[in-house]
Design brief:
The protein is an all-alpha fold. The protein is built from 5 helices and no strands.
Length: 101
């Protein structure tokens, strides 16, 4: 019984750590996609556009982007974001984003 309790405690803690890592990865990814997105889609609300792009990313992309170096290189980041923007669901979402300015 004690072993089951200890195993459950370990699994719960690892889940919390995983959630924290994912949340931080989402934050870093969102911060990294915003500058190239602003240049690719000027005149639309950047926060709403970033939300569209984030919805179009896979969990694997969100987890790997902060450590891949893609977001650190402006040209690579712009190329990556342009590819995501071209995805059908993302493009439709961006079309509904309000214009600014």
């Amino acid at each position: 019984m004690i072993r089951m309790f200890l195993l459950a405690a370990v699994l719960l803690q690892s889940g919390c750590a995983g959630a924290a890592i994912y949340a931080e990865s989402r934050k870093v990814t969102r911060e990294g996609i915003t500058p190239p997105l602003a240049t690719l889609a000027p005149g639309i609300a950047t926060d709403a556009a970033a939300a569209c792009v984030m919805q179009g990313l896979t969990q694997g992309e969100i987890l790997s982007l902060p450590n891949s170096g893609t977001l650190d290189d402006p040209d690579r980041a712009k190329t990556f974001v342009a590819g995501v923007v071209a995805r059908p669901g993302v493009a439709a979402c961006l079309a509904s984003v309000p214009k600014v300015g």
